[in-house]
Every structure is written in C-alpha cells, then in structure tokens.
Amino acid sequence: MATPLVAGCAAVVRQHLIEEREITTPSAALVKALLINGAQNIPGQFVPSEAGSIPNPDEGFGRVNLASSVAPQGETVEVQDERTALDTGGAEALEITIPANTAQLKVTLVWTDPPGEALQNDLDLIVRTEMGEERHGNAPPGTDAFDRLNNVEQVIWQDPPAGQAQIVVRAHRITTFSQSFALVWRLR
Predict the structure, then answer these.
(1) Would you say 172 and 163 are in contact if contact means Cβ atoms under 8 Å apart?
(2) What is the pLDDT of residues 118-157, one digit of tens each?
(3) What is the pLDDT of residue 45?
(4) What are the structural domain ranges in the chain?
(5) Which residues pair with 182 in a beta bridge?
(6) CATH number of 2-187
(7) HEC states along 116-169?
(8) Is the pTM of this model over 0.85?
C-alpha cells in the first residue's frame, strides 16, 4: 500500500505548491524534492539504527511524512523550482542565513535525468558555511566524496553553525541538454 499512499501525498504536495506557494506549474522534481525533504528516518530496533544513515538501501530517504513536507511546525521551508539550467562546469549558489540555535539544516536536490542505462547528467550538492566547513550530497560529513550514481542528493547537517551559508549546485557532467533542478531546504 506504499505506492497509493505516496501517490496521494504527491497530489497533495502539488496542490499545496499551486495554491499556497503560487507555483503555477510545479515540476515533478520539485514535488519529489519536497516529499523527500519532509521524509523521516525509520527507527530500527537498535541504536544506532542497523540500517545506517540516510539514504540507505533499506529505507532510502525515509518514510514520507506529508505534514512535515507541506505544513511543518516551527520550521522554515524554502523551495526553488527549475530556475536555472546548468552545463558541465556551471554552478549556481544560493546564500542563506542560519539563525542561532538551529537544530538542523536539511537540503534536498532533485533533477529529472534523461533516459539511459545509468545517470546521464550528474549534479553535485554542496553546502558550505562562512567558516569554510563543507558537506556534500549523500556523503558522510568530513569526506570529499561526491555521489556519482543518483539524481537525488541530500545534506542533513545537525546543529549547523549560525551565520551565512551557501547552497551550491554544480554540474559535474552534462551529457545531453542543459540540466535544470529543484531544491528544497529547511531549517528547524
């Protein structure tokens, strides 16, 4: 029953984007990004969870939580929908302010990749603080690795330092047309 549940949630998210955020034609990438950004980790029977950190093969990015996706309590959620299309080597940077005592910064990048046997267009998600600390999408903190397999990337930063931060989307490899993308970020 997970498929009809998520399909219904996607319809509600799309309606929310049109009616509440006034995005007249939200992309599939934005609907997916908002659902994934609002998803919650599924606790296992062990602490830490035997499944490992998100994303993982057992739960992906977690369990869909519609309320967290569209009407989060006490959180700031911002979206950007396919505003820019990047070519290889291109990048877009967004400046955000992280208030003091922010418990978590969660950034989700999604793009609709052209068909093919593997990832065709590869974008990188980078979150950088003004002190130079950096996190990469789907990579553990403190690593220089980048995800070269998926068209969804996420950074979850617990207790991020207050101040200015930059969300960077960089085109590592574009094989066909310029690649647009959707971004969702939340502060809690």
Answers:
(1) no
(2) 999 999 999 999 999 999 999 999 999 999 999 999 999 9
(3) 61
(4) 2-187
(5) 81, 110
(6) 2.60.120.380
(7) CCCCCCEEEEEEEECCCCEEECCCCCCCCCCCCCCCEEEEEEECCCCEEEEEEE
(8) yes
